[in-house]
Amino acid sequence: MTATRYDVVIIGAGPAGAAASRRLVQGGMKTLLIEKYKLPRRKMCSGLLSRWTVDFVHRHFGPMPETVYTETPFLKGFGFNFPSLSETVLAPTKNPLPYVRRDRFDCFLAQGSGAEIKDGVRLTGIEQEKDGFKILCSRLRKDGKTTRVTFRARYAVAADGMNSRAVRCVMPDAQRGMPVTTGMQKFYRAEIDLDPDYFHLVFHPNVGFFPWVNMKGERVVVGVSGLEHRKAIRYYDSFVALLEEKFGLKIKEVLREEAMAGYMMAYLNHFVLGQGNFLVAGDAAGFIHGAEGISAALVSGDLAAQAILQADELDSKAVGLYRKCVRPEVDRCLDNLNPLRMSQNAPMLVDGKALRAKQSLKSARLIYEDLKAFAAQDIGLKETGMGKVAKQNMIHYLFHRSYPVDL
Ligand SMILES: Cc1cc2nc3c(=O)[nH]c(=O)nc-3n(C[C@H](O)[C@H](O)[C@H](O)COP(=O)(O)OP(=O)(O)OC[C@H]3O[C@@H](n4cnc5c(N)ncnc54)[C@H](O)[C@@H]3O)c2cc1C
Questions:
Q1: What range does the domain containing 113 cover?
Q2: Which residue's alpha carbon is nearest to atom 41 within ligand 1?
Q3: Of the residues 22, 45, 157, 288, which should be mutated to test ligand 1's pocket, given the most ligand atoms within 8 Å of the CB?
Q4: Are residues 191 and 92 both part of a single domain?
Q5: Banded model confidence at residue 124, pLDDT cuts 50, 70, 90
Q6: Is residue 229 domain-shared with residue 155, that is, in the same domain?
Q7: Number of the ligand 1 atom closest to the C-alpha atom of 34
Q8: Cα–Cα distance between 26 and 33 in angstroms, integer?
Q9: Could you read off the pLDDT of 183-234 as tens digits, one per residue?
């Protein structure tokens, strides 16, 4: 059987894939978007949208339907909890943060892209051919068996998330040596003494490098990230114990548990952009702003598509054009991992002035000491080299106003 031919096949119907699809369809490309799950599919994510995401979606996809919002449609900001302070430091953001259900939000984007969508189709391999790519997939049938399906395309975009199969197929060495992070979260029917209108970060020792609590309607979500799976489980247990002791967490029922693992590349100044006419966008490429990744996925997906459209006109390789146009996005990511720049460029802007005005000198000193102790604990910054790269980036930025990244 002959494989259907497309101009572009995009792997993964998350924000990066949807943004790339939309731009390519508008540019007149015959575009196929494949997704391994049936849409709408679940995605482990808090679902907070930054102002960049909101602007991008509004400009490119139009107003979001009300159905994409969670039971608590907006959050007021962040709650920071420190061992030395009995009170949570509430930091409102400049604008309320939309709080969405990723299954519905991503489906709205994918369908709004105008591309042909094939869901329930999993990429299994990519073969390079003289004039493009052979995209090998398996489709899950209703009877539980799988069928092989093949597509051909002149260009391919990997937008298949943190643990990209597409990248492994075409660039098997690109992720080698990169640290792997595990994120775990559980949804509870529970009570907790924390303000439900804020997303809480807890800077206590022994609970991983990103311990959080948020509330969605009646549900309390508790999550941690750790650099190894076993460590993440240990952090999770001690985090729950801490929440029980300090914030009166009373768990009545576990409603859902989820975990995911993927490469952390931006923390080591590593980005995988692709080769030839194979481009990589979103999480698969390493784009993340601290913990916010939806805007980076949208922007990089859109830029990858622009590079393809330009390459087609100029009859040149897309990756060279992508490298050039995506550079500001790379810098924006690294700004958000650079403590000297975070406060100016944060994707979810806290009203820093109002926050500082509320803190006494004594509590500001205690917060500083707590943050120092938090960063100094064994959360893998040293063994992975991430701590060293963060310091080098800060110094490099001070002198050159740029980052030492080789794209
Ligand atoms: C716990 C957690 C909380 C987060 N909270 C936030 C937040 O509040 N705000 C924010 O901005 N960011 C958040 N992020 C980050 C954000 O979720 C990601 O950065 C964003 O989803 C990246 O988009 P993407 O399109 O690159 O990849 P994804 O959204 O991961 O989409 C990739 C798609 O590819 C599909 N796929 C994978 N493999 C294949 C295959 N072999 N064949 C076909 N399809 C495939 C997947 O099913 C998926 O649909 C969070 C991340 C985590 C882990």
A1: 4-47+103-177+265-335
A2: 123
A3: 45
A4: yes
A5: very high
A6: no
A7: 43
A8: 14
A9: 999 999 999 999 999 999 999 988 888 899 999 888 999 999 888 777 788 8
